[in-house]
Every structure is written in C-alpha cells, then in structure tokens.
C-alpha cells in the first residue's frame, strides 16, 4: 500500500510572488528637539478656550483712536401748560366761595362796590370751577356757583346791621340775577360737555378692549 508523499513546508518566499519594496527609514530628528510629541490640545488655552493670536503691534507715529463719547439726548423743554388740578366737590366749593369773597372785597375797595363788575368777574371763576372739578364730582359744580356768588356779594350789600345786610343781599341777588344765571348756565354747559366726553372715552376704550379680545387666537 503506497502512502502519499508530504511536501516539506517552505519557509522562504515563494517564487511566484514579487518581493516587497523596502520600507523607507525614518528621517532623524533635528538636534535640540525633545523626544516627547506635542499634546493633542496644544493649540488650546489652559482654561479650555481657543488661544487667541496676539494683536499686531501698532506702528510708531500712528495716534491711537479713542472711542467717541456717547452723546446724551438733550432734554426737551417741558411744554408750558395751564394748571389742571382736580378738586373734589368740597374743594371746588371752598375754592369758588373764597375766590368770590376776595373779589367782592376788592370790588368794594377799588370799584366803589360796583355789582356789575362783580358779576363780570363771576363768569371766569365759574369756568375755572367747572374745569377743575374732578369727574366724579361734576354735578356739584352747578350747585356751588350760586352759593359762591351769594357769599362774595356780602361785602357789596348795602345796609346797616345784620338785617340791613340781609336785605341788601336779597336785593343784590335780584338785581344781578342775570350774572348769577349766566355763570350757573356756563358752569352747567362745561360740566355737561366734560361728562359726554368722559362717557365717549370709556366706550371707546371698552370697544378697543373687546376687539383686541376677539382678535386673540384661541387655544
């Protein structure tokens, strides 16, 4: 019985495969260089951020530009407005009565107790009272005006004693009823106009809020 022949293993390179090219040798490092390689994060700063390159030096002779100072806005002069206080009903009554009393004393001294001059001065006081009373007490202004007219007419009333002063006051109210009714009527007109304007403003604001609420997108 014949045994198959085993072929001895060949440790050398085969003849049919081409030989490998020789690997090039590494170039020697330049003298003075350290043998340890650079760390992978050499380009980063110690705090973790990217290291910034230094700014180039400014050439000599070039002046350094300073940032322009910020200009502050010039405050505009406040518009001159007339005094617009808001008086309560009691405050409006005291204001109108005191002013008319002072005017009555001045007329008695300077104009010979002329009730006509007093009636003319009553009109602007009524206008100021109607403009300066707040909206919640507008209805008190037409009531205040005739009372203040009677208070200011006391220094102008003719008569001796308390009874004579009262009779002179009644006579002055009767003779100067035109100025009294005119001032009260002017006060009522101004109060009515302010009331209508306030109601329209409230309605406009309500309509604007309602439209804004309707235009909002619903979730």
How does this model look, in words?
The chain has a domain at 89-215. The protein has five helices and no strands. It has helices at 89-110, 115-132, 141-152, 161-175, 177-215. The longest helix has 39 residues, at 177-215.
Percentage of residues in helical conformation: 40-55%
Note the gap between the termini: 98 Å
SS field, number of helical segments: 5
Instruction: Characterize the overall form.
Output: elongated
Please give the number of β-strands.
0
Which structural class best describes the helix and strand composition? mainly alpha
Residue windows where pLDDT falls under 50 for at least 5 positions:
74-79
Radius of gyration: 52 Å
Largest sheet: none
Proportion of residues in β-strands: under 5%
Mean pLDDT: 75
Multimer state = single chain
Provide the descriptors you would attach to this structure in a database record.
single chain; about 220 residues; mainly alpha; 5 helices
Short characterization:
This protein has 219 residues and is mostly helical.
Topology:
Elements lengths: L88 H22 L4 H18 L8 H12 L8 H15 L1 H39 L4
Helix pairs in contact: 1-2, 1-3, 2-3, 2-5, 3-5
